[in-house]
Specification:
Layout lengths: L2 H8 L6 E6 L6 H13 L4 E4 L7 H14 L4 E3 L13 E7 L5 H18 L2 E9 L4 H6 L10 H13 L4 E5 L10 H10 L4 E4 L5 H10 L3 E4 L2 H4 L3 H13 L2
Parallel strand pairs: 1-2, 1-8, 2-3, 3-4, 4-5, 5-6, 6-7, 7-8
Bound molecules: SN-glycerol-1-phosphate.
The site of SN-glycerol-1-phosphate has 14 residues, from strand 8.
């Protein structure tokens, strides 16, 4: 089954999904694999591999190879550039940072990566990526003009544009490690206006936030940092996954 079909099936009928982001730069491949396995045991539905500063493919290759040995859920590349396209993943978010001021982030890196993705036979999942304040590292590196937290209408405009451009998913990103996630009011406002699945991530560390965002209309909740800071991933991530899925 294609990964996009897997995602669409998982969220059919208003069901929710949780994905775990692992930054291959933060630990050795065997530790990324342990985190992924424990995240799967906690109920996460897919592993995303990426990070704002990951610079080379070897790091991504090694992490994905190690992870694929121990999990059965899909592994999706969450790229920061065309330099991290790995043949070992199940799919790649073919994403455009829509509110970047840098054309490289909007379409340049995508043009560089497209032929390579085709050659590898990797499944591209078209996604509109929108940075919300504070945006953190990805906002800075991506040269985004982050959407103000009190301007849901700007988020709607970009999200709808993504849908009209044919993108299959829309991602509202507050930035990894953000002190606060995307405001639930913004999630609710965007959800009301678009028909494609909505992903929300950045700064979600408490089950309450996961459940609030899920209830506001996020179809997919992404967490990253939490698995790097807690002792017991199964227990702590489990609570977030449950909150996201059964809000
Ligand atoms: C980053 O949204 C993800 O792209 C995850 O953010 O690390 O804050 O969970 P956190």
């Amino acid at each position: 089954m294609k990964v996009l079909d897997y995602i669409l099936k998982k969220i059919e009928g208003g069901k929710k999904m949780h994905m775990t982001l692992i930054d291959p730069e933060d630990q050795k491949p065997e530790d990324s694999a342990r985190i992924a396995r424990e995240a799967e045991q906690a109920g996460t539905d897919a592993i995303m591999i990426g990070g704002s500063t990951v610079a080379n493919r070897n790091m991504v290759d090694s992490a994905i190879k190690a992870i694929k040995k121990v999990v059965s859920i899909p592994v999706i590349i969450f790229p920061n550039s065309a330099n991290v396209i790995s043949p070992y993943a199940d799919a790649i978010y073919f994403m455009s940072l829509l509110n970047s001021r840098d054309v490289e982030m909007v379409i340049g890196q995508q043009a560089k990566g497209a032929i390579w993705i085709k050659k590898l036979g990797l499944e591209p999942i078209p996604m509109g990526y929108i940075i919300i304040e504070p945006g953190m590292t990805v906002g800075k590196i991506g040269k985004a003009s982050p959407i103000p937290r009190d301007k849901p209408e700007f988020a709607i405009a970009y999200a709808l544009a993504a849908q009209y451009l044919g993108m299959k998913l829309v991602y509202l990103e507050a930035g990894s490690g953000a002190p606060k996630p995307v405001p639930p009011e913004m999630v609710q406002a965007v959800r009301k206006e678009i028909d494609v699945p909505l992903i929300v991530g950045g700064g979600i560390r408490e089950p309450e936030n996961a459940s609030r965002l899920s209830r506001a209309g996020a179809d997919i909740i992404v967490t990253g940092t939490i698995v790097e800071i807690v002792e017991d991933i199964k227990e702590e991530l489990g609570k977030i996954v449950e909150a996201a899925k059964y809000a």
